[in-house]
Structures are given as structure tokens and as C-alpha cells.
Design brief:
The protein contains 13 helices and 23 strands. It is an alpha/beta fold. The chain is globular, with a radius of gyration of 24 Å.
Length: about 475
Amino acid sequence: MSSETNTDPRRETLLYQPKTGFDTLAEGQWDQALSFADAYKSFLDTGKTEREAVSEAVRLAEARGFAPCRRGMAVRPGDKVYRVNRGKAVTLAVIGRRPLAGGLRLAAAHIDVPRIDLKPMPLYEDGELALFKTHYYGGLKKYHWLALPLELRGVFAKPDGTVIPVSIGGKPDEPVFAITDLLPHLAQDQYKKNLAEAFPGEGLNAIAGHRPDAAEGSDRIKLSVMGILHQKYGVTEAGFPSAELSLVPALPARDVGLDAALLGGYGHDDRVCSFAALRALLDLDGIPEHTAVCMLTDKEEIGSEGVTGMRGSAFDTFMHDLCEGQSVPLRACFENSLCLSADVCNAFDPNFPEVSDKRNNCRLGFGAGLIKYTGSRGKGGSSDAPAETVARVRGLLDRAGVRYQFGELGKVDQGGGGTVAAYLARRDIDVLDAGVPVLSMHSPFEIVSKLDVWMTYLACGAVYGDHAE
């Protein structure tokens, strides 16, 4: 009886039996996935801040023939244009054969990542050290950032309009920064506290220097550090409030595991989907039927607020300018559009199985994760994609031979999270969350499967290439 049941053809037809993507790869696809992962590693190491990620995206796009989009310029099918939003977000488009009234095929991802930002007046001296006061950005576990080599990246902006890039600690011969941890010999009281109390945000002060200046008086170490910054960048302490400076892990992206099938690094959430969406647009073959758009936005990790976030209007302005050239109302374009909110999801972690519903959690190596709803505790804050939208995306991916799986962000009432999907839905755009499953999300060293990265790239390409009305 058991043998007959296992070979019953109805099992294959009627039951959903997910398989690892490694068992279904076409010949040569794994080599393509590995090559794609190598290119992604370079993007990850180059773009450790939003500004750097945007600069690298623009460099890659211009090498493929993209040009800045100017208001009032005429665009024709096949034209490739982009617009940068204040250096921290970018939208790129390949103009399709059909009028914009037929809608867009869009992939939206975010390029901001949890990090440690310097406060407006960060530099001070105490205990024979110069230190930076910080304010963490996004949802992170503060203890992850202790006793870790850190780079300082960002910009100083001067009143005359000059913007000075800052990058210290990324090269082997450069010094790094660090936030100290308490030695276990003296940590008995710390062990008795919960994580929030044991690692207060105001305690994340990073070492900036130690050697005092030769001058007499107070704050000699602080003066020494400021002298180095002035010599290197021509700035003074008064320039800190108009700077954007962040501490990020001084760790390169690395292969993980003896078989090198996994990829570890800082910033997978959400630069892995950003790169997949970007490269899928750059790699489009010929002129798409519908205008294909890749949007890399900022501020998702703090609610998509601000002038460079998805709640801002820069994307609407960009699309309004394109639609105006075809005398198409923006709302008519949006209501006929389809979007992948290309964002990561959690992968099932065998070290922490209690937080996941195994039947409804994405797994490493099973392909791009389709997430019908995000949110938390009753789907709060989720766009909860309609069944028709999910089915439509499934059809596109099936026809393109893309491996995908279904999931949600942990057990009910366990927690949850959000993406930019809700803000696209507010614009009357059909949207579904889809992206790469991640281990150790929001840590300084996140882990993804190279197979899932490749399949997410293919999924974005399938949406860009949609021929449907």
C-alpha cells in the first residue's frame, strides 16, 4: 500500500511538493549563478552606503547606454534613462513599445541598510581616547556591533555646495574603528540584564584615536584626531552637523561553506535584491513591450520616510515627466502597472526553528521567495497582495522557468516586518513582495544562497519582459 501511494500520479498533480532548486537547474545555470554572485560581491563591497550604491548603479547603467532623464526630453521605445534623487536613490527605465497608459513593469528595492551613524556633534575625549558618539540606524541588535572592525564612510557637505566623500578603513593599510565590549571577567552584572538594558544605544561609542597632540591644554587627543581629518578632508569640527557619516563593518563579502554555495556579507537586506533588479534591467534583451522600471529607494529601514524614501514623491515626479511626454495621466499608468517589491525575507534557520512555521517559511536554495503579506500581528502594515496578483506573478515566473517558493515572516504573533510594497499599493499599483531568503538578517554578516540570488534576478527579468496587456 505504501509503495502504491508513493507512486500514485495524483501525488504529483494534486499536492504541492517543493524541491530544492539545485535539483531542477538547467545545464549551465549553476555556472551562471556563480558568475552573477561574483559580480554581486563586487557591488556589495563597493556600495556600503546608499550614496556609494547609487554611484555604482549609475556607473553600471551608463556603461550599458543609460543617460540622465531631463524634464521635457522626448523619449522613444528602447531609450534608456535614469534619474538620481539627491544622491541617495535612483530610478532607471527602459521605454517600452506600448504607451505608458498600458502601465509599467516595475521592480522596487531599497539600498539603505542598518548601520551606526555618527551624531551631529560626535567627537569627544574620555579615558585617554577620542571617541565618536553614535545613533544606530534601522532595526539591529546592538551587541552585534561591539568588538568589530568598522569603516567610516559618508560625506561632508559644505555651505558652498562642495560634497567631500569620506572612506576610511576599507583598505588593508588603513586604520579601522571599533566599539568596545566589556570583558567577561567583569560582566557579572551585565549578564543579569536583558539585551536592551545590557547594550544601551548611548553606549555605542566608537574609538577614533588615542595619541595626544603636542599642543598644551585640554582635549589633546580630540585635537589630534580633528587635525588628521582636517589634513585629509579640509574639514573642521563645525562641519560635522552637515555631514552624513556612518560606521559599517570592515568585512568583505565572502563565500560561505566548503562548497561555496552560500554568500556572506554586510548589506544583503536589501542590496541583494537591488542588484538583482538593477542587473535584470541592464540585461534586458531588445525593447520591452511595457516600459520597464527599476527603482532603488532609500530610508526603508526607518519607515520609508524622508525626501529620498518611498513615501516621498520623487518616483511620482519621474514617472509624471515620462507620462507627460505621451500625454498620459500618471494615474492611468499606475493603475495598469505591475510591481515586484524586491525585498528579502527570512530563511528557515535550523538553529532557531521555534520562530518559524515550517510549512510557510522560505528555505535556502528553493528559489526566490514570494511573500503575499508582510506586516506583523494580524498583517498590520501589509499590502496583502490580491490572489489575482499572486497568480499573475506565478504565471510569469512559470513561463520563464524561474524557481520560486512561498513564505511569510515568522510565526503569527512572533514579530514581523515591512517593505515598500504598501507605499506602491497606495499609488494604485498591483504589487507583490518577492526576494531572497536571508540568514542572520540585519546583522553585520548576513548569509544568502547563490541559487536564490540568481533566481531573484531571473524573476525580475520575467516581470520586466511581461508581454501581457
